[in-house]
Fold each of these.
Amino acid sequence: MVSTGEFTGLPGGVAVSHLSVYDWPAPDGVCGGTPHMHLTCSEAYVVTGGRGAVQTLTTSGYEVTPLVPGTVAWFTPGTIHRLVNEDDLRITVLMQNSGLPEAGDAVLTLPPQYLTDPETYAAATRIPTDAPREEQERFARTRRDLALEGYRALRDADGPEPLAAFHRAAAALVRPRLADWRERWRRGAEAAAAATGEQLDRLEKGDVGHLADAAVRAELPSEYGKFGMCGRLDVYRAT
C-alpha cells in the first residue's frame, strides 16, 4: 500500500479534460466520435453545452442516453461507448486513474483483423502528432470510421460471442502495458486513498499537523484542441 501522507493530484486521483465532440458526419449520417471501450477505468461526462447522446453497448444490450446541459452520465469498464453530436455538444470529462482512459486504457472497436496484435492495432489507430492539423484530422476521421465498422458489427451480432471475442482481443492488446498502468494507479488513486487513510488515523490521535500543509493549486490547459477519440480535447497536466 502506498503511504504518502499528502496527495497533490486532482481529488481522488482523477483527471479532467474539456471535450468538443466531433461534428464530422460518419458513413451512417450521424455526427460524433469514435466508439471504444476502457478495460480498467470508469469515465464520467458533465455536459456543459449543446445537445447529443451517448450510445452504449454492453452484455446487457444497446442503449442511448440523451445528453443535455446539466446531465452527468458515467459508465464502468467494459462499456463500449460512442458520443453523438446533435448540436455543438461540449462536455467536461472526468477520467479515473489519473486520466488513464486517454493515456492507453482504450481499445477502439476496429474490425477483428486489426485486433490481432499491438503493432497492427497501433498502425490503424495512430495519429501522427508532428503532422499538420489537417493531416491529423484526416487520420482521426479515418480511424473513427474504421471503428464504426466494427461497432456496427458488434451491435448487429446474433448472440454474445462477437462481443466476448472483442473483450478477449482487447485484453490481449493491452496486456504488455499493464505494468505501466499499475504504476499510474499506484501514484494516483491508490496514493490518494492512502493519504486519506493516514489523515483519518492522525485525526483519531488528535494530530492535526497535516492541516498546516494546506495548499492551493490551479492551472490552465496544457494543450488545446488535441485530437482525441471522441472530439477535440483541452487537456491538463495535473493528475
Amino acid sequence: MSTHAVTLRPRELRSHGTAAPSVLPGTGEAPHLWLVRTDEFRTRARQQAAAVLDRSEQERADRFRLPADRDTYLSAHVGLRLLLGAYLRTEPAKVALTRLPCPLCPEPHGRPAVEGNPVHFSLSHSDGLGLLAFAASPVGVDIEQVPPPEVAEEVGRSLHPREWDELRGYPTPERPEAFARTWARKEAYLKGLGTGLGRDAALDYVGTSAAPAALPGWTISDVEVDEARTAAAVAVRN
C-alpha cells in the first residue's frame, strides 16, 4: 500500500562559510538532509581532507583511480565530518567514527556511527553528488544515477516480484527512471537496517510509483536533488 508522495529537499553545504546547523532532529522529526556538490565543494575538501579525515578515510580516498571519483568521495566525507562537528559542537577531526555490528552476522560492518553518541547518520555519493542524512533514529540515504536500459532490465530482476512486474508495465523509455527511483528507496531502507545489500533486495516491497510503499516501522521518502537523471531517497525508523 502506498502513502501520499512527500518529496524532501536537502540543504546544500557550500564551500564558503561554516556548517552551522542548530540542533539535531528530535524524536519523530524529519531527518536533516544535506547535499554536497563536488564541483562546488572539491577545493575545500582537498584543503581540509588531511586535517579532518581519519587514516582509513584517507587511505580509501587514495584507492580511487579517477580524480573525479576521488573528489566526490572527499567532498562527501569532509562534508560529513564538518556537519557532525557542527552538530556535536566539536572539532571535525575529533569525531570518532565506528561501525555497528551487522544484523546478519557478528562482524562490525553495520551502520556507521559516532562512538558513544546517539546521533544517527547516513551518507551516499554518486557521480559528483553527495547526500547526507542526520536523524534521532536509524536512518539510511541513497542517491543513484538513472542507469542505461539494459542495466535497469538486468538488475530489475533482483527486485521484489511485485516491483519487477510493475517495472515491466512502464513504457520502455520510462523504465530506467522508475528503476532508479525504486533502487534508491530500497538501498536507503537497507542502509537504515544496517544490512546493506547483504539482505536480499527481493524481500522488501518499496514500490515503483510516485509514492513509496509503506514498510512497518519505517518512513521512506523521495529526495529532490534538482539533477536530471538522478534519483534519491531517505528511510528513517519511526
